[in-house]
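Training component of the fellowship. As part of building independent skills, the fellow (R.M.) carried out the full modelling exercise for a liganded target. The chosen ligand was NAP. The inputs are recorded below so that the supervisory panel can assess the work.
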Amino acid sequence: MKYKAYIVEDNNGAFNGSIKELEVPKLEEGKVLIKVINSSLNYKDALAATGAKGVVKSYPFVPGIDIAGKVIGSSSLHFTEGDDVIATGYKIGMSEFGGFGEIVHLPENWILKLPKNLSHFDAMSYGTAGLTAAACVKKILDANVKKDLPVIVSGATGGVGSISVGLLSKLGYEVHAVTGKSSEIEILKIMGATEIISRDDYMSEPIKPLDKALYSAAVDTVGGDILAKIISMVSNHGVVSCCGNVGGATFSSSVFPFILRGIQLSGIDSAESSIDLKSELWNLLSDEWSLDLVNQTKTIKIDDVGSEINKILKGDQIGRVVIQHGE
Ligand SMILES: NC(=O)c1ccc[n+]([C@@H]2O[C@H](COP(=O)([O-])OP(=O)(O)OC[C@H]3O[C@@H](n4cnc5c(N)ncnc54)[C@H](OP(=O)(O)O)[C@@H]3O)[C@@H](O)[C@H]2O)c1
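Fellow's submitted model of the complex:
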């Protein structure tokens, strides 16, 4: 039996993706075969599709770190044929073929049952971006950050950023959104931001060791100098959830926000977080934390993923891209 997939090949350092027919793998012990109904596009998938170092182990390879689908074969005691399931992160789309193919073959301990109130499509409109946003917000809640000052979110129109804006706003925080897209003020307001800050304006003054403490907490999806600036502007005992590097992998700061304001810099690694934490976050997203993402989700066929990859690499995506397999 064959299935359709977007497979990336390495032609002497030039990475090209195309749709091909692949052989369905033979079911191995402790693994589950899943017919993928929806997947989604995340920044890491774009890196995988373009041969960025440190993402994919070897090519040819099928990217796609997010999966929502139906079990079609199982050698696990926990899953049976017909189960609706989700899987995100771990080595999916890095060393195991991922959701840009119609079938995946995954270890049982990477898979969760789809929460009752979520469809496959809903789950993928959150995807890893939503799970990461939920993990960032949970760090802020777990530290009992007060609501007397706003929370700042960077990369606000992106997948993680936009869902973070929505979650924080739903949970009663005032949200200030930093964006490079001056044209997207209205959509950011719909997502729940009360103030939109242009990235250029935010970065126009030099970064100080300690700046005005304007924010109670932050979700930073960008890294680099924006993260350094944010750290300098978080108030006493605030939390900065740090999850991304689209703006740079290094930053320089001082000890003062940490020793004079007692702030915490919390790293987020959603891919390798425990399956129990993933389950807790999916349950929240399907229930008390559920968001209407209809205005910020685009649906595409797998044939169109190439152009969407180019857009996400340029920082031009808004919200989420869900891939619909099949006709
Ligand atoms: N640690 C984890 O577990 C984890 C999980 C998921 C994602 N991530 C990381 O989080 C980041 C965001 O992922 P995503 O899927 O949300 O990507 P995305 O949808 O492309 O969003 C990134 C957003 O960042 C802003 N941006 C892009 N390039 C920038 C630049 N050069 N300087 C400043 N801002 C820039 C843009 O928003 P504006 O135009 O609104 O500023 C863009 O929409 C990525 O680095 C990704 O690898 C980490």
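The panel noted the following from the submitted structure. The first strand starts at residue 2 and ends at 11. The pocket of NAP is lined by residues 42-44, 128-129, 132, 155-161, 179-181, 199, 221-222, 243-247, 268-271, 312, 315, 317 (CB under 6 Å).
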